[in-house]
Design a protein that fits this description.
Number of domains: 2
Number of strands: 17
CATH topology of the largest domain: Aspartate Aminotransferase, domain 2
Bound molecules: pyridoxal-5'-phosphate
Strand content: 15-25%
Radius of gyration: 22 Å
CATH architecture of the largest domain: 3-Layer(aba) Sandwich
Structural class: alpha/beta
């Protein structure tokens, strides 16, 4: 069933505005999504009607907030197909979720952590730091020539020494998605755990953590129509119970003496200090909103847009496979002798088209290929095919004039 994009756009106040006198064409969705009024209302509801803390005080405002927070947790866990609400820990973002695993899992000197060669810095630095601090070994699985995952190479690199496979589920560099279910099966056969960086899969496709069978899955609210500063980490209950929290303090314990403490149950033992309550309610509203749209519809619309861009853009070299079906909502281009930042600024100034330029926090991949950066258009379900065609027309015109 095709979605009514024009109707959906009415939910997004920013899409009703003009930027520099022109309609906004927002193609920087892989960085941050726009927010519908349903999410804005949930945020406002917190500040206007509750404005209290959750989980502690026993007055009515606090009690209502605690109930609404746990309802949001249930919505998020259902959205990702988790078995239990308590398997969702609220974090600031994907980065915090990954750092939580890195700093809470019992990894020791000589243990191997495997990543892909296309990791966002958020799923690279935690392992580099652990290599320095604890002596773990970080190994990289190189992609195939077309930048897709090399499952045979991965299987050859697996051994009993590999304790964790920490990989980007959908790449923010080229939109490709790794065969996560197969990866989990192979990893588990070797006794390793799997952590998926879900920053780019959560907003764009149906993710069922139980079907995939990953042990951990980190995501960011701000990329999936939710507020900034809120995200989450899914973990299988038995895995979360084995982690040693690394951020501790208020909310993480049920009792303390001067020398001892009793840890709270999961997930609260990982949610230290007062929380981003407006964000949590907003995230709950965001997943309900996406559920209503339907993630299959989101994916279908993004494929339409990706196809229009892929077919239309001339003279620039696409990163990753040409087939739009393999690249979700991402079209990332090497711009040759043209500075990608200059191109991005021209698109903004001349046509109010917002795209991202640079290394997209995947510096390691650009360094490996001796490249400096690229220009990335990333679409979402509220973008229209007319916008995609307009982008194509504008970028082709600018590039032609510059060459
Ligand atoms: C693939 C990927 N991983 C991790 C992140 C980091 O997300 P956040 O900054 O929300 O923690 C991003 C953000 O762009 C991303 O695209």
């Amino acid at each position: 069933m095709a979605i009514n994009t024009l109707k959906i756009r009415e939910d997004f106040p920013i899409l009703q505005k003009r930027i520099g006198g022109k309609p906004l064409v927002y193609f920087d969705n892989a960085c941050m999504s726009l927010r519908p009024k349903q999410v804005l209302s949930a945020i406002q509801h917190y500040y206007e009607d509750l404005s209290a803390c959750g989980g502690r005080s026993s007055h009515r405002l606090a009690t209502q907030l605690t109930e609404e927070m746990e309802r949001a947790r249930k919505s998020v866990s259902a959205f990702f197909g988790a078995k239990r609400a308590e398997e969702i820990i609220f974090t600031k973002n994907t980065t915090e979720g990954i750092n939580l695993v890195a700093n809470s899992l019992a990894l020791h000197k000589g243990d191997v952590v495997l990543t892909t060669d296309k990791e966002h810095n958020s799923n690279l630095l935690p392992w580099q730091f652990l290599a320095k601090r604890k002596g773990i070994v970080h190994e990289v699985v190189d992609s195939q020539k077309d930048n897709t995952f090399d499952i045979d190479r991965f299987e050859r690199m697996m051994s009993k020494k590999v304790k964790l496979v920490a990989m980007v589920h959908t790449s923010n560099l080229d939109g490709t998605t790794i065969p996560a279910r197969e990866i989990c099966k192979i990893a588990h056969e070797h006794g390793a755990l799997v952590l998926l960086d879900g920053a780019q899969s959560a907003p764009h496709k149906n993710v069922d953590v139980r079907k995939i069978d990953c042990d951990f899955y980190a995501f960011s609210g701000h990329k999936m129509c939710g507020p900034s500063g809120i995200g989450g980490l899914y973990g299988k209950k038995e895995m979360l119970e084995q982690l040693q929290p690394f951020l501790v303090g208020g909310e993480t314990v049920t009792d303390t003496t001067y020398t001892t403490y009793e840890l709270e149950e999961i997930p609260h033992r990982f949610e230290a200090g007062l929380q981003h309550y407006a964000g949590i309610l907003g995230l709950g509203a965001a997943v309900e909103y996406l559920k209503k749209i339907g993630m299959a519809n989101v994916e279908a619309q993004e494929l339409l847009l990706n196809s229009a861009i892929t077919q239309g853009v001339e003279q620039l070299q696409l990163i990753g496979p040409v087939d739009p079906k393999l690249r979700g909502g991402i079209c990332n281009y090497l711009t040759g002798s043209i500075d990608p930042h200059a191109l991005a600024i021209m698109l903004d100034q001349s046509a109010s088209i917002m795209v991202r330029s640079g290394a997209h926090c995947v510096h390691s991949w650009f360094n490996k290929h001796h490249l400096k950066g690229s220009l990335r258009a990333s679409v979402s379900f509220y973008n229209t095919v007319d916008e995609a065609k307009f982008f194509v027309e504008q970028i082709n015109k600018i590039v032609k004039n510059l060459k």
